[in-house]
UniProtKB/TrEMBL annotation:
It comes from Ureibacillus xyleni. One of its GO terms (biological process) is amino acid transport. It comes from the Bacteria. This is D-methionine transport system ATP-binding protein. SUPFAM superfamilies: ACT-like (SSF55021), P-loop containing nucleoside triphosphate hydrolases (SSF52540). It holds the Pfam family NIL.
Length: 341
């Protein structure tokens, strides 16, 4: 559905050239939710502008929905862009228009008759859960409701691709979740391909099937969300995963436990899928007679299943401790000895 082939984007500035995107290759399938994550300045916004044709790449090709967006212009680009919609961090609503009229706006531009417009607007209002608020103005809505209007407006002309530019960054955590659930619902119901950019791993975990991690204009890692969570390769990806697994906070706990129990091994266990539901710890204790102290634990849901991390101190006879680690490996629980006491 979307192909980026060896894309680079170089901006000219007073201080010389800025490479915003460098040699990026990505392939996004029809109907998937694909996340691009990176810190500020990584090149995410540039990527999204390349996808909707607002920017031309310095090198490479962008293909969206069968059209080579990177080389077309004028009417051809305008037509192609009707199938590529977008929602924004700050909603970009028309403040002097009601909810219904905001949603009707792209339909007016597309020349849809008044009767058909009213019918479609009603459908969209129902779809995003805004029934009863048709005649409200944006200033009378909460942030979450404003984003629902943004989503309805983006869906008005039946797009094939929805681009989300930090769409939940201005919302509180609960509202963020309700908007993410709406996006997931729309993706399932309409088979819409969704590409989102974000700096929050929570967003990726909650709704994405696959993720690309960007740093300094490059994609440093990409893959299925669950795999990336279980086995992050790049340092930046490890940092993003820590946002969700909370293992950063546990450093203090590890220091504490080392001070209190200066024996054994501190091990980080990472497990995915139904392994999170097995009584692995009790097996270690029963089968090997080792002591297990839980330092930190966390289980998160992704669209492909649960993902968990557990940091434990395993203490006992060296041979038994190693056998316990071996059992964990056999159980496809990933183990990383993060500290020897
Ligand atoms: N029009 C432009 N002219 C010059 N430099 C630009 C332009 N747009 C972006 N850049 C530069 O390209 C780099 C990538 O910017 P970009 O906005 O794509 O990153 P980002 O990951 O979206 O960051 P943020 O989340 O802060 O928007 C930055 O160094 C930025 O200053």
């Amino acid at each position: 559905m979307i192909e980026l082939k060896d894309i680079s984007k170089i901006y000219q500035s007073k201080n010389g050239e800025i490479t915003a995107v460098k040699n990026v290759n990505l392939s996004i399938n029809k109907g998937e939710i694909f996340g691009i994550i990176g810190y500020s300045g990584a090149g995410k916004s540039t990527m999204i502008r390349l996808l909707n044709g607002l920017e031309k790449p310095t090198n490479g090709t962008v293909i969206v929905n069968g059209k080579q967006i990177s080389s077309i212009s004028g009417n051809e680009l305008r037509n192609a862009r009707q199938k590529i919609s977008m929602i924004f961090q700050h909603f970009n609503l028309l403040w002097s228009r009601t909810v219904a009229d905001n949603i009707a706006f792209p339909l007016e531009i597309a020349g849809i008759t008044k009767n058909e417009r009213s019918k479609r607007v009603k459908e969209l209002i129902d779809l995003v859960g805004l029934s009863g608020r048709e005649n409200a103005y944006p200033s009378q809505l909460s942030g979450g409701q404003k984003q629902r209007v943004g989503i309805a407006r983006a869906l008005a002309n039946n797009p094939e691709v929805l681009l989300c530019d930090e769409a939940t960054s201005a919302l509180d955590p609960e509202t963020t979740d309700s908007i993410l659930e709406l996006l997931l619902d729309i993706n399932k119901r309409l088979g819409l391909t969704i590409v989102l950019i974000t700096h929050e791993m929570h967003v990726i975990r909650k709704i994405c099937n696959r993720v690309a991690v960007m740093e300094a204009g490059q994609v440093v890692e990409q893959g299925d969300v669950l795999q990336v969570f279980q086995n992050p390769q790049a340092d930046i990806t490890k940092n993003f995963v820590m946002q969700v697994s909370g293992t950063k906070e546990s450093k203090e706990s590890i220091e504490q436990i080392l001070a209190n129990y200066p024996t054994g091994k501190i091990v980080k266990l990472t497990f995915i899928g139904n392994k999170t539901e097995q009584p692995i710890i009790s097996r270690l204790i029963k089968d090997f007679g080792v002591e297990v102290n839980i330092v930190h634990g966390n289980i998160s849901q992704t669209t492909s299943g649960p993902y968990g991390t557990l940091i434990v101190q395993i203490d006992g006879d060296d041979v038994k401790v190693n056998q316990a680690l071996h059992l964990l490996d056999q159980q496809e629980v990933q183990t990383e000895v993060i500290d020897h006491a």
